[in-house]
Amino acid sequence: MQHVKIPQDRIGVLIGEGGETMREIEAAAEVRLDIDSENGSVAVETVGDPVLGLKGPEIVRAIGRGFAPEDALRLLEDDMMLFDVVDIDAASRNKNDMKRKKGRLIGEGGRTRELMEELTGADVVIYGSTLGVIGAPQEVDAVRTAAEMLLDGAPHGAVYSFLEEKHNEMKHKGMEYHRFPGGQS
């Protein structure tokens, strides 16, 4: 059994209307969730497939970090799906610096965050003092690098170029990987 602590304001999202979301997570990840709505503590107990059960705490953690339940459940799509968190607070000197860096990650009208999603294929959420990412390893890695570049003060243009380069790289690898093997004898 694992214990995960999530913010108070995310407990309702984890439980869902009439416990619907909680039951969906329990069924999909083959776990049992024991939610303490007083302190935000969630006990995650594996009741079925232990490999699926390992993803249970990650799903709860992802919802706690601002992801919608359906996005968090993407972690079950594939063994390679990852959930990663970039701590904005750790890269900041003070409250104002944190606000500024968070603003850089979000971008004007949310455009920078959207571009991170579009160009990598990962889901990106900025909540509280963290940036959360769900995706395949190379997608998560590209978003983490882009976020760190922005936190270090790199110009947005340079970060967008990096993301486009990664996008083309991933697209090219995908094409090679899925090439039709037949046809030549």
From TrEMBL:
GO terms for molecular function: RNA binding. Gene3D superfamilies: K Homology domain, type 1. Keywords: RNA-binding. InterPro entries: KH_dom, KH_dom_type_1, KH_dom_type_1_sf, KH_domain_protein_archaea, KH_PNO1_2nd. Residues 1-81, 82-152 form the K Homology domain. It comes from the Archaea. PANTHER family: RIBONUCLEASE Y, RNA-BINDING PROTEIN PNO1. NCBIfam families: arCOG04150, PRK13763.1-4. This is KH domain-containing protein. It comes from Natrinema thermotolerans.
